[in-house]
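Holo model, S-adenosyl-L-homocysteine. Inputs:
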Amino acid sequence: MKFDIFTIFPAMFESPFAESIIRRAIEREIIDIRIHDIRDHGVGVHRAVDDTPFGGGPGMVMCAPPIIESVEEALGDELQETTMLVMSPSGERLTQALVTQLAAAPRIGIICGRYEGIDQRVADYLQARDVSIGDYVVSGGELPAAIVVDAVTRLLPGVINSASLGDESHLEGLLEYPHYTRPAEYRDMRVPDVLLSGHHANIRAWRRAMAEARTRKRRPDLVESTDDQ
Ligand code: SAH
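Output:
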């Protein structure tokens, strides 16, 4: 899987991709991540990439030409087969279902916004999907882009032990059950007896019940959407 990320803050990606699972996926050549500085296509001596919004209002908007030109230079003909994403709080929500869909793409391009956002013509011209990491606003698209890369990469074959993928939150519309490890007792808190019993059927039933109870309590919206199906 190839990722191309377009940003005005390339240095923000140095550490998130330099550790642990992502680092190993890069070393094993399962993924390749290229970071492109949109400012290389900025305008004038200051390499400007933003301007005031048409129609008025506060803040600045990222201009279309430097972004579209960066993407075209980086991807060329590969653009046809690249799934382009624009990180945006007004995009469709990133869910495990969308992550799974993205993991099947041959190539993903991600555009990171700053300021008030990005000229709409970027997404229109590049036929990009607007994607949001959740219903809150962060100050730029870089951390959201790193989240997309991470969530997609861990699903790719050979990245992590596939047994650990089989049991996770959001797979069947349920949150995961609680985990415990040694010591079995700590400050008067005992691990539930069933987990120490060695009785696998009971453990499975307990975990399922905990997952359902937790989902009902914390995320009733997920229970309703499963009931609808
Ligand atoms: N004025 C915008 C917010 C801009 S935040 C609005 O109200 O919708 C600046 C940039 O941060 C955005 O262009 C986007 O790339 C990124 N960003 C902020 N919150 C995000 C979220 N929840 N998901 C994905 N990207 C986000």
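The chain has nine helices and nine strands. Residues 3 and 33 are 5 Å apart (CA to CA).
Archived with the compound record.
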